[in-house]
TrEMBL record:
It comes from Streptosporangium subroseum. This is Nucleoside-diphosphate-sugar epimerase. Residues 264-293 are annotated as: Disordered. PANTHER family: NAD(P)-BINDING DOMAIN-CONTAINING PROTEIN-RELATED, PROTEIN YEEZ. GO terms for molecular function: aldehyde dehydrogenase (NAD+) activity.
Amino acid sequence: MRVFVTGGTGLIGSAVVAELLGNNHTVLALARSDASALAVEAAGAEPLRGALADLDVLRAGVAQADGVIHLAFSNDFSSSDALAKAVAEESAALAALGEELVGSDRPFVTASGTPYVPGRASTEADPLHTDGPVGGRGRAVTAVLGLASRGVRSTAVRLPRTVHNRGTGGFAGMLTGIARQSGVSGYPGDGAQRWPAVHALDAAVLFRLALEQAPAGSSWHAVADEGDRLLDIAAVIGRRLGLPVEPVPSETYGTLGPIFMTDQPSSSAHTRQALGWEPKHPNLLEDLENIQP
């Protein structure tokens, strides 16, 4: 299958591209810079120059592909305005990609986040949140899944709060960066809140399985660790960096403060049973041991 991939040079995207190429697929990857284009070529894929906001380029990519995997997102959490802009850009891109696929029965796999459900681990059957700081993403992904009724084999791979590889990535990576800057490995609240996590290489396998097998309108959880306590994450970071581990105000995390305060475990039991997905790489706490002082 020839697959058009957005976000193909990021932590997750590079793993997805390698997974596709290693399983007899070819890849056309969106590249927004010369450096990205070179990285795509070095990986063995073909670059398509353009950014996520270039809707005509996205349509051209779809026209050349048998399926689409969308991973690109600006990840600018510096302010509520920046986050809103990123969500709006992605929503427009998803709409353009989806419309180009209508009536083709081709697969369209988009990335999403695991939902938060009070009092229990979320499952694949739980709906995405459509309000709050990232509610726009939930609405856009829900619209993508709705394309199942219009001849698109649309599916969503829901990613946990931390997708990691070699000690970097996701919300845990943000904690590490803030710890380096502040001199404290901090956590909001009492640190008992749990975050789900997955290794990027395991997540990549699930994206491929969804592309190849998943029925239209389905959602899947790329969750290896159902929930690691934030205090335990901060403790490993602090030990690796030689820093004290202390509670800090939720405001330390800006726009993401309310999310960081939330206990949000998630299950992947259905995904494992239905698609035969089984994580094999180090869990988050093990992988954080790769943090360099």
